[in-house]
């Protein structure tokens, strides 16, 4: 939901959700933005089927009119990418929730979760390379990752996306950051900006702050500063 909130209020056009899974982030953005259409890009066949079943529900008819599911590997290049349905310069927004856990971390015994959670190879280079190919000039890239991935993200954006804005997410005051939110603009030459931290929970319980609760429930967006 925080990934969806990076797409600003009033945004319109075409959005690609890379690694969409069941489509939660892309559909959350579409439900808030009446002039946005989304392509949910996912490779795992089980997740693709879940996303398609979601759109087939009668109560999701309005979303289904503005969203589609594309089974494709976002690491494909050149003609293979085009043949899979990821066209050049087709999108105004690209959002992604990559499988950013390191492959050396303790693996989950669930095979489906393992595929969705653990990266292989130079993942950020591959995914952001494709994002750069399918994004129009001036398009916004938005992603969520672990804090230790910031160097790889900055490196992958180089020459493709600039004006990076990074927000560290903290579970509560005094704790270490657990995630980062990053946005960037296709073709921008602006410098990197480290934004004020975002604290998720108040006190010792799991209640979200009022602002984070609004982000999680589509009542607010988290727009760029630049």
TrEMBL record:
<keyword id="KW-0808">Transferase</keyword>
<keyword id="KW-0949">S-adenosyl-L-methionine</keyword>
<dbReference type="InterPro" id="IPR029063">
    <property type="entry name" value="SAM-dependent_MTases_sf"/>
</dbReference>
<dbReference type="GO" id="GO:0003676">
    <property type="term" value="F:nucleic acid binding"/>
</dbReference>
<feature type="domain" description="Methyltransferase small">
    <location>
        <begin position="2"/>
        <end position="105"/>
    </location>
</feature>
<dbReference type="GO" id="GO:0008757">
    <property type="term" value="F:S-adenosylmethionine-dependent methyltransferase activity"/>
</dbReference>
<dbReference type="GO" id="GO:0008170">
    <property type="term" value="F:N-methyltransferase activity"/>
</dbReference>
<protein>
    <submittedName>
        <fullName>Methyltransferase</fullName>
    </submittedName>
</protein>
<keyword id="KW-0489">Methyltransferase</keyword>
<dbReference type="InterPro" id="IPR002052">
    <property type="entry name" value="DNA_methylase_N6_adenine_CS"/>
</dbReference>
<dbReference type="InterPro" id="IPR007848">
    <property type="entry name" value="Small_mtfrase_dom"/>
</dbReference>
<dbReference type="GO" id="GO:0032259">
    <property type="term" value="P:methylation"/>
</dbReference>
<dbReference type="Pfam" id="PF05175">
    <property type="entry name" value="MTS"/>
</dbReference>
<dbReference type="InterPro" id="IPR050210">
    <property type="entry name" value="tRNA_Adenine-N(6)_MTase"/>
</dbReference>
């Amino acid at each position: 939901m925080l990934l969806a909130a990076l797409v600003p209020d009033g945004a319109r056009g075409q959005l690609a959700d890379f690694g969409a899974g069941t489509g939660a982030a892309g559909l959350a953005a579409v439900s808030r933005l009446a002039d946005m259409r989304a392509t949910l890009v996912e490779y795992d066949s089980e997740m693709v089927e879940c996303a398609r079943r979601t759109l087939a529900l009668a109560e999701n008819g309005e979303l289904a009119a503005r969203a589609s599911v594309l089974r494709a590997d976002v690491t494909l290049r050149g003609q293979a990418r085009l043949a899979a349905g990821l066209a050049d310069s087709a999108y105004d927004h690209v959002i992604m929730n990559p499988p950013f856990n390191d492959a050396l971390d303790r693996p989950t015994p669930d095979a489906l979760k393992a595929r969705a959670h653990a990266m292989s190879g130079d993942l950020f280079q591959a995914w952001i390379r494709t994002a750069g190919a399918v994004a129009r000039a001036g398009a916004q890239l938005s992603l969520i990752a672990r804090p230790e991935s910031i160097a790889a993200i900055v490196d992958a954006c180089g020459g493709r996306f600039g004006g990076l804005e990074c927000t560290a997410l903290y579970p509560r005051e005094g704790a270490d950051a657990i995630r980062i939110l990053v946005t960037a603009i296709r073709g921008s030459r602006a410098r990197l900006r480290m934004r004020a931290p975002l604290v998720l929970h108040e006190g010792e319980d799991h209640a979200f702050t009022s602002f984070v609760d609004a982000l999680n429930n589509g009542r607010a967006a988290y727009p760029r500063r630049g």
